[in-house]
Amino acid sequence: MNTLKTLIVALVLAIIAPANAQDVDEILTNYFENTGGIEKWKNLEGVKMVGVMKMQGMEIPFEQVMLKDGKQATKIDLQGQKMTWSAYDGETSWTRNQMTMEPEKNDSEANQNMKNLAKEWPSPFLNYKDKGFTVELVGKETVDGTEAFKIKVVKDPVVKDGQEIPNISHYYFDTENFVPIVIEEEVQDGPMKGQTVKMIVSDYQEVDGLYFPFSQSNQFQSMEFKEFVLNPEIEESLFVFPEGK
Amino acid sequence: MIQKYIIAGALLCATVSIKAQEVVLKGKELFGNLEARHIGPALMSGRIIDLANHPTNSRILYAGAAGGGVWKSTDGGATFAPIFDEHAQSIGAITVDPNDPDNTIWVGTGEIWTRNSVSVGDGLYVTKDGGANWKKVGFDKSERISSITINPSNSNEIYVGVLGALWGDSEERGIYKTTDGGKNWEKILYIDQTTGAGDLVMDPQNPDVLYASMWEFRRTAWGFNSGGPNSALYKTTDGGKTWNKIHNGFPEGNLGRIAVAVAPSDPKIVYAVVESKKDKGLYKSEDYGKSWKLLNGDFGLVVRPFYFSRIVVDPKNPDILVKGGLNGSISRDGGKTFKNLGAMHSDIHDIIFDINNSDRMYVGTDGGVYRSWDGGATLDMVDNLPLSQFYHISVDNEEPYNVYGGLQDNGSWYGPSSSPGGIEARDWTRVGVGDGFRVLRHPTKQIIYSEMQGAQNLWRYDIAKNQTKNVKPLKVKGKADLRFNWNAPIAISEHQPDRLYIGSQFLHVSEDQGDNWKIISPDLTTNDPAKQDKESGGISKDKSGAETHTTIFTIAESPLDEKTIWVGTDDGNVQITTDGGKNWTNVVENVPNLPKNTWVYHIEASVHNEGTAYAVFDGHNNNDMNPYVYKTTDYGQSWKSLVTDDIIGFARNIQEDYENEDILYLGTEFGLFITIDGGKNWSRFTNNMPATAVHFIDLQKKTNDLVLGTHGRGVIIIDDISPLRQINQATLNKDVHFFDTKPYVVTEEGGFGGGSTELQFVGANPSSSAQIIYYLKKRHTFGKMTLSIEDMAGNEIVSLTPGKSKGINIVDWNFRTKGPKVAAGKTLTFGGFTAPRAPAGSYKAVLSKGKNRYETTIEIKNDPNSIVTESERAQQQKIAKALFDDMEELAYLVYRIDEIIKTAEELKKNDPKAEKITSAVVSKLNDLKKTLVVTTGDNYVNEAEPELREKLSELYAEVANQFETPSAGQLENKAILEAQLDKALVTFKTIQEKEVDKLEKYLAKNEKPAVTYKDKAAFLK
To answer: Which residues belong to the signal peptide in this entry (chain A) (predicted)?
Structure first.
């Protein structure tokens, strides 16, 4: 149930045509050029994702919305109860308490981190220099049995327990298709703190000219997507903390 | 004629194309997502070499292990996580760049407390991102790096002290300096090929002032020498251009290892602990090393300098200093007097103080990291560092099987390969003390043999009676004194369960579990008196027995013929008898390209052929770091090397596969290597497998689990390697290949685990699920891929998340089908998350990839140990199914109620005239609903009184989860709840016929949309 709180879908962009990438910027330039064009990604206003999350033997249908300005919301269907489990309206992020099922505001650090997360959408690599992120080609490595470019991205630090800590992710781009197939992130708290969680990314399919991975899984849970809706019409109220409820 | 050419040409093409298609997969391409799991243990942890602080963030600490890599704590030492798994795991020094402490950390590999069993390093590494990525900087042949010192105002200026090779001459030692951040290095202090840098410290106020202790030392397989005319303490005041000996006040004559420290708060005060024949002890200088005064020669300060030459001064108080040692010593009067640190694991190698509060200290020992909050008086062990250093492991045949093994300075233990809630500290049982080595389980009795350092004890431990007897063989009249290796070999016969072998220089055999012994060989070693040094140590005598040489090290009785016994000795003899010990032949001369007297580390007698055996030789203690692995098929008359360039590090152990002769598992100083083609190609196994030294490998025969005894990361297991046996060219050329699997057992076990705290290491359990194991020729990236379990009629039971990796993929199925659709209420009902188990039988695993469909059959079966009968089981399944259907019937009822209420309320809102009709519907239905599901409260202590859904789901979950036939009480409850459900359905029907009917008529009359809801099948879909 805890992982419900961290229901995060990383949006990963795809590349179709391979290129002879020499350095990280070449890989990324190709990557955007070949996925419907960097302009199309820049113009993307938001995505609604519909799918099923599998964890601990449960299948939980969900619907997640992420907008360019950072707003996001995750609706789930638990035993027939459909509810917005967590959301962020650009100022306030909140999650439902597992005991009362009532919404509660996230702590100030989580809120701050959520605010920073907005920059990463739809991809931390999109205009990464403007965002102040640094990107580095670490080298070639074999992941999932496949040779890949290992690209490190250093994003805005996250705040945890009163301290800023570095925020590093590694993306592995398949050298044949130039598509990220594995994303590694460090666990920041809990019993697995300091360990790396590997997310397997696959089942890329085209949606209105852009490619999305329809399957994302790690050792705890997997998400199988049924649908991606680009630039959806969304009521603002979806994201807002339901006061007085 | 022409036709012939064409045919020949076609044949040629065919051969070429077949050859071209030969697929050789290496490493992760082959192993895919076949992963190792770590079971620890961590309760005794392992040897720590070096600790390091972050200079400004007291939450961050680093620990470097003897064989377990670098670990980082971000919570002030409460827990640690590994950050260096891909590189040499033997650590000498860790230094955080004071100018960029969040990101830049330097690690020198190769431990520096040079006991006989030390591992080796392979150079200097740096990370620029806090440990996420590491780059090797060089010093490939340094073997051991003792110190890294960085100018606190210039990160480009770094000094590295290289202790260097332990087992031979080497020029890559001394003090090195870079002024460009590590691109170029200059050797600025070098004595000779035998003398390395033991310690290097910088004056915290003047980066041009450094103190360097140089140490002359050498180890052989049979002795150790510390000290000589080259050992000395040097100082530079010009950044290393010139060095001068600073011995004014030091003892005369040859010196040994010297520890040195500058008081950070008052750098004119320098402490040195000097190893010397005479006047050894703690020296203090109050004038920057110009002159020295002997203050103290207590045992705690001078004991075993090669192991404990570390002195640390409190960062704030120059009078508080701590010395590594057997117990560790602390002085609060500037070194005049010392007392022991508080009780903890013995053998203290490093101590650091918290940067803000000197009462907080961290200590690195032979048994892990300890932390103190009261200035070293009370010590608390870090419980999540699984750094145990096994010399040897073995497994038994229990279910689950146990792993047995002995550890460096941490006794002998056994523990289960699986335990409820994970393998916890409390699951391990001690079966020996001191340095533990070989531990073997009697094949048929509740008896464990456990051997302690140099066969000082060979315990026969009766598990059931908890009785121990020392059964080690003693000297025999008319024979020489017995010489036992520190790691003396014992072996159990595969043919006679009570037969036990032990090797001294002779092979001893007992037919009665060690009560009586018989010598069945002559001295099988070289018996070279030059290698029987009894006065080892050099300046400080160090007689632990660890250097006893010219001994037997490995014994292998052929599993096919009890008269054929192989013996390997530490001085390089491979002896074989084929008549039970009457005649012995030394066949080592037949081994090609093997340096003379290379230690025979392991002989594996094959299960495939009587004359076949494997021998692994380890020359590292002769300064030869090459792997030597050989196979004979003719009783040692000829040998073939199995070594290729794929193998990294000298080798210690080999395990053959019991079924496929071409599969071999090799343990080296830097990890595990596997061949599936008889040694033509080797692949390093790196999936959750650190580059740690693998000292011993066993293959569990029932489970096909490969069990590794590592010297620094505990026991690591790769579960069920049998898919490797099915890999061949035909397999590798298929797009998708399902591996055959044995039937999976639905284990009927309950029990509780979870007795550990959050800060304790808990070892991973094996999968208890059925597994779908397949090979993918290519990683699946584009398009949809699914994996589902179907019954044999093709109905989907459950859908799984498939692995997409190239190579081997393993997907777990926990035997569960889909859970029921649950009635919607205000809160959750946890029983509703229960999915019924699939009954025993055959199932199809169906993999869809684009338009292609691939399938295989897997078998699941009931627990053979079950006490549940077939008819009871059928009854359980029947009742569980009935309750499942009740759950869904109720869900559908509540769904319909909700849909009708929704329509009614909608109408009520828009059409006030309908008020009477809608209110009646809403009120009646809500009254009914309140009896069906909870409509108030929360999931915790404000829980509402349970209604039908809650009661039904609890009973359903109970019955679905149990294996036994439902009890009379359960059946009675089922009847009560079903009566309620039936009654509710009747009530609903009545409301439908009356109130809802009125509503529907009203809607029809007013041409509004009718009440609609899905039919049951659509709802349940």
So the answer is: 1-21
